[in-house]
Amino acid sequence: MFNRAGVYYSEDTTTGKQHSLRTKDEAEALALLHSKNEAHRQPVLNLHIARTYLTATDPEVAKRTWQVPMDEMTKTKTGSTHARHVIAMKDKAFDLIRNQPILETYSAHFLKVLELGTVSTNVYLRRIHNFALDMNWLAWSILPKRQWPKVKFKEKRAITLEEHQRIIAAEVNPERKTLYQLCWHLGASQGDIANLKGEDVDWTSNTVSFTRQKSGVAVLVHLGAEALNVFKDLPAEGVLFPYLSRVRAGDRATEFGQRCRQLGIKGVTLHSYRYAWAERAKVAGMPERFAQEALGHNSKAVHRAYAKRALMKIPSLEDYERKAEGAAVAKAS
Fold this sequence. Notes:
The protein is mainly alpha-helical. About 50% of the residues lie in helices and about 5% in strands.
């Protein structure tokens, strides 16, 4: 504390910042200075006490940074999910906390990361935060659940039949053309289709079976005439897409995006085929449980299409009553 022109000031010995205490009374100034010191000392003391207790059970707690949960969470993932996590953890916004000790992190640190980041930053920071909580590396939430900014994804839409036909007509690479055709007929992810084999097709029952890479769930889909014609031109054994099965999903998406830009088609990606399949299924009257089996029970494409996106012509109750009466008469006779 010091006096300048009759008014008392305080100086932060760490930062050097000076603030007026707005008083000329020395006793009052000393009381204000004491309050400032106590306000600063108590949180620091609390942190030291917490560290002491936690160190007794976890010696690494004092020096564990946010890079640790980033790395350990990524190790728990496999396949394409692991690849996405590796890329997500390189987000430049995370550099603000990457080397920050977990126990010395405050809400302001997270808010700054969220401010500089994107929607993906919001999603993955939540996961990192929750992973640290689950592992008992964090004694309390940095941000209360209700204070996290709402995740707002960009609007996605289904690819239309006209757009699909234009892409097929313009595509000169036979592998890519066939991949897009099967995406339209099956609605499966590009990775699942790219890794199909000739042995996956059962020509006796006209079905194709595969295991989803993301969930590991087996899928069995009946093939219509158009889909069967596509498979007839492919090998009966071995990998159906020798080149596309070896490249990264991002490379397949880039090639598709380039074709769309050449044709002036905007707002669609390879994932748009899943939205299209789900919306076509609803319009055709396919029960939601069948669409869920085909695309996955947690598929956002199914939930969105069956909730609001696709318009379905609902039959009249009279039609159902006539069908029920006809069935009853047929059964009685």
